[in-house]
Amino acid sequence: MIRFEPRSNVSSLFAFALPIIAGITALVLAAIPIAAAGGEVFAAYGHIFKGAFGSKFALSELLARATPLIFTGLAVSVAFRAKLWNIGAEGQLYVGALAAVAIGSGAISAPSYIMIPLIILAGMIAGGTLMLVPTLLKTKLGADEVVTTLLLNFVVLLFVQMMLEGPMKDPMGMGWPQSEPMTSAATLPKMFARMRIHWGLVIALVSALIIYIMMKRSVWGFEIRATGENVSAAKHAGIPVTSTFIKVGLISGALAGLAGVSEVAGLKGYLTADISPGFGYTGVVVAMLAGLSPVGVVVAAVFIAAVFVGADSMSRAMGVSSYIADLVVAMSLICVLVSSLFVCFKIRFVRPKKTPLVAKGEA
Amino acid sequence: MEYIDILLSANFWAAAIRIATPLIFGVLGALVCERAGVLNLGIEGIFVVGAMCGWMAVWLGAGLWGGILIAALAGAFFGLLHGILTVPLGLSQHVSGLGITMFATSVSYFTYRTALPKVSSPPRIEAFQPLDIPVLSDLPFIGPALFQQTSMTFLALAMVLLVSYVLYRTPLGLAIRAVGDNPSAVEAQGLSVFALRIGAIMAGSALMALGGAFLTMSAFDAFFFGMINGRGWICIALVVFASWRPGKALLGALLFGAFDAFQIRLQNEVGAVIPSQVFLMIPYLLSIIALVLVARKADYPRALLQPYFRGQR
């Protein structure tokens, strides 16, 4: 018989170590599918590690991959803190990218110190506005935001495809459905020559810092946390719950929109309908691994990026399908979810005894 | 009037029912889980698993009904996983469901890629063919519209009857509904809340997997990446629209199928003027609208999303 006993004091070291253990567990479990696919397990881990950390080039790829994940991870963590279930970061990323391209691919010409803030602002507004829709549907009409944000992802992707095949199609794109390239003034510069890592990473880190300060030290952060912990208690305490949800929705959507801006202006240089291989959904895993903490998001994003970049290189070297990365990411989500039990509860294995008719410990 | 012509063609109604079939399975599955008090956002991934396993079983020679059985079992397995995470462990149903969707999807894709590393065009199977029922299929208009469907469509309709019979006419159904409304009352009756909930989730997930299997074994004859394309999420919206009743679930799915079949035909009429994506958006927007319309007065199972621990209220 297994019994859960609520834990009163959680050592912070323990709480900190658990997600790491969860991530490692997921990685170890990946040995099963790797072996099933006929791969040499230890060699595979070697390839994953070398592919992610083995060279300056690998590190640059790793951080370039982590950048959008930091943004979407932050977006999800802010929303989940308030128990606003924003699963729409994918769609918000795309509208952010679309807004950046609409402004930055030649519609306005201005020096880069104007253009870059402008596309950042446009992406944030676009993402925030998109998230405002499900937030209002939740607060005003009681429609579950999980379903609406998920469904909007599909709508947005179709909208982006429509724009890329129609009004925003690059006439010089050899017929491919892609946008015109960003002008050089609207491009986030690369950090090092011949490497893909770009200044979007710095913006991501600054965002994480701002969110950290907001959550820890501001009234907004307090209201967000209080709303997430207990809506009715927050209401009784005089916290404006509805406007808190709206604020959270706007911030969360804006952060996800930034992911799109950074990908389009920093990495790809133009927009295609496959610019995100599910960064929005992976953001949920990043946020959960991070325990919804902004600093944790950065670490978790680097971990998940390492899994993707490492698995890609392992897949090329050994022929094991690169879907192994998605498998590890999914398993880390489940592992971290299970590990959260260990934070909240002491788990005791007890001999089953005759349970009294009235359960004990009712308080 | 070309719009009336669309509605008057038998072909249109046949398509509406065909499009509705996977949704009937999916909505029923979601309904069974939610009636027992557990939201199953694993649905999207369970659709993928059902589609992949059903198809692969047939491809490996299990036969069509063998494929159905394997799809259902695979669905039930992922349901069991969701059940363990959310019922005795009481973890967040939202996050666990998303985790199941990601896990089930990636397992399916990984397995498919591993089994078929380098195929450009996916291998095809001998899928279910439309039945030729004596007399009924030969009726003018009604025959081709309603009765020239595959066995899986009739299986879906049978499931509607079965689920409503079990839910409303058997002690088991009473217990399942009660466990979603008031689990402590069920415990007081000496029944196991855990067993009832996990059982319902497994049964519901098996139904969801059949919805996926329909796509690879009846609507098409091959498995494609991304073929589920949000159908699972649409079911989650439709189950609210159906206010957790099997009959209304059938109605909702059929209505949805009719709208979808209509937009496909409309696309042929005015496709030159309006980009195809506008039409493709319609199903998702319709689901959102359906959800919003009923959300305020929706009669949620009262214990939905609430984990139950023994001896605790």
From TrEMBL, chain A:
UniProt main location, coarse: membrane
Record's keyword annotation contains Cell membrane: yes
Transmembrane segments: 12-37, 57-80, 92-108, 114-134, 146-164, 197-215, 278-311, 323-345
Localization, UniProt: Cell membrane
Membrane topology annotation: Multi-pass membrane protein
Keywords: Cell membrane, Membrane, Transmembrane, Transmembrane helix
InterPro entries given in the database record: ABC_transp_permease
The protein, known as: Nucleoside ABC transporter membrane protein
Automatic annotation (TrEMBL), chain B:
Segments traversing the membrane: 12-31, 38-58, 64-87, 146-168, 194-216, 222-242, 272-295
This protein's record includes keyword Transmembrane: yes
Residues in the signal sequence: none
Pfam families: BPD_transp_2
Source domain of life: Bacteria
Subcellular location: Cell membrane
Keywords: Cell membrane, Membrane, Transmembrane, Transmembrane helix
Protein name, UniProt field: Nucleoside ABC transporter membrane protein
Membrane topology of this protein: Multi-pass membrane protein
Lineage: Bacteria, Pseudomonadati, Pseudomonadota, Alphaproteobacteria, Hyphomicrobiales
